[in-house]
Structure formats: C-alpha cells, structure tokens
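stage 2 :: seqdesign
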C-alpha cells in the first residue's frame, strides 16, 4: 500500500519543466508528504552549481555547451538564444511569481529529498562537487524505483 509520499523524476533541463517539478514538490511537502526529487540527465542542470564540468575532451565540450545551474535553464519553447529565458524571468517577476532559485530553496527548506543519478553524472562527467550541497545522495535507478513504489503519487518531467 502506498504511503503519504511523493516521488518526482526530473529528466528535463527545461525551465518550465523544472519549474513545474519544484512547484509540485513544494506543494506536496507543504501538504505533509515525504517528497523525493530524483534528477537525471538534463535534469541535473537544476541542481548543479553552474561551474564548468568535465575531465576529458568530450566531457569538457558538453560542460561548456550545456552549462548547468538553475539560473541558466532555458524554456522548452521560444528560448531564442537566451532571450526567451530573460523574457520569461521578467514576465514572472512582473506577476510576482517566485524565482526558480528561490523555489528550489523552498523545497530544500521544506525537507524535500534531492537525489542525483550517479550513472548520468558519470556519462556527463559531472562530479559530486559540481552539485549543490543539499543533494543528499548519488543513486541508481533502483533507489528511485524503491521510493516511487512506496509513494502515493509519482511524476516524471
């Protein structure tokens, strides 16, 4: 039987999808649910510090072309070379919407568990030091499946 828990898999690095993930996570946590967010592949960008990553040539190229950091996330549509990101941030600020970095901090303050996919980090040459300190564990898929199986709600974005 599922418990009063939420499990969210974040596999996109698009601003709008990461935003929705943190909105759901903070809502679930505020409602008293034990909430876990697991970040994999492009979703790792949301929990990276924003420094350059990679050790080998291809890892460094990937780190340069796809630099992480929550303030660097672009929208899934109308990014327009970064102009879309600026435009959406301005529109959200004008409407009083909580900025993504603040929303992530709210999730942390509410006790949302942040997990990072160890395999994705290895492939993309992202080190533990490249992630924000609040990431609790580097895990594999079995850990997320175990948490999701025991949750009353599960999402993937």
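stage 2 :: out
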């Amino acid at each position: 039987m599922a418990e009063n828990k939420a499990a969210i898999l974040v596999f996109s690095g698009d601003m709008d999808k990461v935003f929705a993930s943190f909105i759901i996570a903070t809502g679930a946590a505020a409602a008293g649910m034990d909430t876990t967010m697991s970040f994999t592949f492009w979703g790792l960008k949301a929990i990276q510090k924003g420094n350059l990553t990679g050790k080998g040539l291809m890892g460094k190229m990937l780190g340069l072309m796809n630099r992480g950091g929550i303030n660097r996330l672009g929208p899934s549509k109308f990014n327009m070379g970064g102009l879309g990101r600026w435009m959406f941030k301005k529109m959200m600020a004008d409407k009083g919407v909580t900025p993504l970095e603040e929303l992530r901090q709210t999730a942390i303050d509410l006790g949302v568990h942040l997990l990072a996919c160890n395999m994705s980090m290895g492939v993309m040459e992202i080190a533990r030091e490249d992630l924000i300190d609040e990431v609790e564990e580097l895990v594999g898929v079995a850990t997320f499946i175990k948490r999701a199986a025991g949750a009353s709600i599960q999402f993937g974005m």
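stage 3 :: structure notes
- The chain has one domain: 3-156.
- Residues 15-30 form the longest helix (16 residues).
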